[in-house]
Amino acid sequence: MDVNCEGCAGCCLDWRPLGAPDDREREGRYRALDDAYHLVALSRDEIRGFVEAGLGDALVPRLFAADGDRTAVVDGHEVAGVGGRPAFLVGIRKLPKPVAPFDGDRVWLEACAFLDPSTLKCRIHDSDRYPDRCRTYPGHNLELDAETECERVERVHGEPGERLVDDAVPADLPAPPLSRGALGSTVFLHHDPDALDGAVGRLVAGEGVAADRAEFVACAAASAPGTAAVNDEHYERVRDRVLAADSWIGAAAEEWRAAAEDPGDRVADAPAPDSVEVDRGAPATTDWDG
C-alpha cells in the first residue's frame, strides 16, 4: 500500500464543505449520532496510552442510533446498546482549523486535533501515540474493496492514482473496529447509564464538555477485552486523570473555536498555527520537502 498524502489530509479533515461525496457514517443500521467526519476508532490500549501521556482531553466518544432490539435508552436518546448499556467507540477530537488542502484556498474545516494546519502533517505520526488504524489506512477499505478516502479526493480534487498510488493490502492490519472480538477492545459498554444524564444530549448536539468525554474515556480505559466488564477502581482513577488533563489540545481547542468562521469559509484572519499549538507544547512538523 502506498499513499501520497502531501497537500491532502482528506482522511484527517471534514472536507464535506469542499465536496466530499457522501456521508456514509450516518447511513445503515448503526448511524453515528455526532457529526464528526471519519472518526478513527482507538483501541483500549491506545486510549490508555493517550491518558497516560496527559492527552486524555484529546479524546471523544461516539454513540450510534440503531434499529432492532440491540438498543438502550439513555438521556432520552435511543442508542445502540446491549442489556440497557450504551455501546460506544472512542476517537480523537476534531477542531476547526485554517487549512488549505487539495491545492485550494485556505478555509476553515474541522480537522483532527493532531493535524498541523500549516504542513497538513500529523503531529504524532512518528510517535508511540500514532493509532494503528491511521498507520494502516486505507487497508481495511482495500481488503473489503470499498472506496477509500484517497479515491474520494481523487474523484473530486485530483486524478486517479494521484493519492492512492498502490492498492496492495497491508499484511499487518489490526482487527476491524466492529469485529466479533471488539467488545472491550474497541467497542465499549458504559457500565452506569445513570451517570450519563445530560451527557448524551450534549454530545449529540456537539456541545459535549470535559466531564462528558471523561465519563466515556474512563469507561473504555477500564474495560476488559472480550467482555463487558469494567474495573470500577480503574474507571474512577482514569476519569479523575482525564478531568485533570491540561494538554495543549484543550487550550488550542478554545482558541481555534473562538477564531473560526463557518466550515468552508475562506480564512480572512486567523492566529498563527504555531502560536496556538506549538507554543503550547504541540510537537512540530517539517514541510513535506523537509
Automatic annotation (TrEMBL):
Q: Name one Pfam family in it.
A: DUF7531
Q: Which residue stretches belong to region Disordered?
A: 256-290
Biased-composition ranges, Basic and acidic residues, are 256-268
Entry superkingdom: Archaea
Task: Extract the InterPro entries matched here.
Answer: DUF7531
What protein name does the entry list?
A: YkgJ family cysteine cluster protein
Source organism (scientific name): Halobaculum halobium
